[in-house]
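Now for a sample.
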Amino acid sequence: MKYNLVEEENWRRKLEVTIPEEDINKKFEEVYKVLKREAQIPGFRKGKAPINVIKSRYGKLAEKEVLESVVPDAYSEAVKESGVMPISDPAFSMIQIEEGKPVTFTAEFDIKPEIELQKYTGFTLKKQSPELKEEDVEDAYKHILDRFSSLKTKEGAAEDNDLVVVDMEVLEDPSNSIEQKEMKDFQFQLNQKATLPEFYNALKGINPGDVREVEIDYPDDYYQEQMAGKHFKFKLTAKEIKEVIPPEINEEFLKQFGEDMKTADDLKDRIREDLKQRRQQEVENELQDQTIKSVISANTFELPESLIHNYLDHMIEDYKQQNQDKQADDEELRKQYRPMAIRFIRWNLLYHLIAEKEKIEVSKEDTDNWLENFADKSNITVEQAREFLAAQKKIQDVKETILEQKVIDFILESSTVEDV
């Protein structure tokens, strides 16, 4: 067997393989012997038909069986001899076969990228302040009260905090972004923090039956992507004004948040503590994300397309499993998730390389500590936690999570973190 290894772009490799004539002839003989023994041809007893009749009747079948046998074997041998390590299935092409002649074919595949680490320490990172503002506590407290408030239809004009029920009609939509042009019983709460200024100003002081027109340019960062940065004009017809009646703050109301809740201040203290923990976690998450971005930016390399393709296959499958009631457009999902896939794969390759170079490993003690923490949060025993993760085949995922965190901690310790 002869082969030639061709290096192509982005870790793509092509093997050009030639299987010698004598090997092909030997395989044809083996296949024809089996066919001759098993074939039942009219006019001949089983196993007695002349070989030329067998070849005439079963020649194409023999070629197929020879190909299916010799090509995978030759490919495996060529891969072994060349020393490459494919990470994708081979794509075969240019296969030619004819008894008495050598077989030639090509096999294309991707190999694992050979990455030379350029920089993974010495970054300057910005850490946001975990400080909590008292107005955040008050806003969260008011939000809880809103959840338990009741509504009462009122006479007169809409005031701050009232709920205004309107029928909305789309008058102008140049980008044709809104599919439903008429919306019945749409609700606005008159709150300057939560309601866009154009709607707030139009609805403040409105009475049932009044009609207002609103032109609005939505902010570029508006949470509904199809409306962000676009211009619209709406007609609003007020149908009903509802007053928001907050709950009575008494012991019966407060105890649903904890038996130790006696006053509104107790509830605010609980909210303050929860928000502090959440804010601290947000700060840590942002710092870690900044660390990952810094490492990726400092170490540029091309990725094999097959790695991206396979990762997207898994992402789309997960999406379909979790959204079985939605129609999925595979191509649109691939386009949407591709940047996320590239970031994940780059970081995954990089942090494993860093761990290998710095001899960062996951010990049994690391795993035990993680399991104890998981069990404590889940209110189960460590053994139950271990059994649960083993049943879900997540033990390896746990080790990967610990390894990634240890690498991030190493990078942070080797960098400058500035408080801002």
In short: The CA atoms of residues 43 and 49 lie 8 Å apart.
